[in-house]
Design goal:
alpha+beta
Length: 367
């Protein structure tokens, strides 16, 4: 990683003098009331409750309850329906005088001791990785995955310092060594500390170790979710009747595997449920092969909506002459959208494609 000089004299010295601490709640993006309300409704454990919402995989449901991912509006509606409560009752006002994030997070702590030095290095490493990618335009998300074997999800987690270096798997650590051009952990630590001393990380550290920024992002996400739920009424009494659930809509499924990661437009016999916000032309597409890795197994079915254009961080389907191609979406440094798959390795500039050939993936069904 190239090392630039600090923008102002003494800025790197002041950065060194100021303690660099990791936000202890940096992995929490969506505090909510799922744990409290399911226990109030008689579900002492999450696993039995998960059977009441079979459309949401247990792992994702657990992440939602722990606040590690932001639930989609349809997920909130399904969870609330299973609890017999209004959807908005699951949301938390993080600005309310009585809300304490530390108290909220306490039940989810694993009890392991926190090492301040390792937490500090996690923050420095995240800043260094951001700096390296900024300095080298060739280090795109897909290029890092292709050339270094660092999956996009882990790339994002390292950049956000979600856990200490020692808790990353050996392949992830080796990928970081290769990415920074160092032989081992000791050399990586020396390089990162040198970048800090030179002021090369000054612009990136506030993006990671800043609870205020996290609070603002969380507030915005909860507000967006509340708006999507169309101002559902506040928490009802436990004996209140369940809120009405909209009619179930089933759409046809197509798909069969083709060479090169393509999916044939072959009609299937089954139907699949589409979310309420899907457009009239929505359809199901069998994934057929794990072209995006293990996170989306081959036996899954995705719901595609041609009326919606995808956004970075989501999934899309591109209609090519030979069939459909399932893609993960990222944003390039120039703001343009890139679609990519990992098996086979493939990259498409979606902004150059005919919009009518691109459909956003709005839901997935895991078998």
């Amino acid at each position: 990683m190239g090392v630039r000089k600090a923008g102002k004299a003494g800025s790197s010295a002041s950065m060194l003098a100021r303690p660099i601490t990791a936000d202890p709640f940096r992995s929490i993006v969506f505090p909510n009331r799922l744990r409290e309300l399911r226990r109030r409704q008689g579900f002492s454990k999450l696993l039995p409750f998960a059977s009441a919402v079979p459309d949401i995989p247990y792992i994702r449901l657990s992440k939602i309850e722990r606040g590690e991912v932001v639930a989609r509006p349809e997920e909130i509606r399904r969870i609330a329906a299973a609890l017999g409560l209004p959807p908005a009752s699951l949301l938390v006002d993080i600005d309310a005088p009585g809300f304490d994030l530390a108290h909220w997070a306490e039940p989810f702590l694993d009890g392991s001791a926190v090492n301040p030095e390792e937490e500090r290095f996690a923050v420095l490493l995240g800043a260094a990785l951001r700096a390296r990618r900024t300095e080298n335009a060739a280090l795109t998300i897909s290029a890092i995955e292709r050339d270094y074997g660092l999956a996009p999800v882990n790339l994002s987690r390292v950049e956000n310092a979600l856990k200490p270096f020692g808790r990353w798997s050996t392949p992830t650590q080796r990928a970081l060594f290769a990415l920074f051009g160092v032989p081992d952990e000791a050399a990586l630590r020396r390089q990162v500390e040198a970048a800090l001393a030179a002021g090369a990380l000054d612009a990136y550290l506030p993006q990671i170790a800043n609870p205020e920024h996290r609070h603002e992002r969380t507030r915005a996400r909860i507000a967006e979710l509340a708006a999507a739920l169309e101002g559902a009424v506040p928490l009802a009494a436990p004996d209140a009747p369940p809120p009405p659930v909209g009619p179930v809509r089933m759409v046809p499924v197509i798909g069969a595997p083709l060479p090169g990661g393509l999916i044939a437009e072959t009609p299937a016999t089954e139907l699949v449920e589409a979310p309420a916000h899907a457009g009239p032309a929505a359809f199901g597409l069998r994934v057929s092969r794990a072209t995006l890795g293990g996170g989306l197994p081959a036996q899954s079915t995705v719901i595609c909506d041609p009326a919606r254009f995808p956004a970075p961080g989501g999934l899309a389907v591109l209609r090519e002459p030979g069939g459909f191609r399932l893609l993960a979406i990222a944003s390039g440094r120039d703001g343009r959208m890139i679609g990519y798959s990992t098996n086979p390795e493939h990259e498409v500039m979606l902004d150059d494609c005919d919009p009518s050939a691109v459909a956003a993936v709005v839901a997935a069904v895991f078998v």
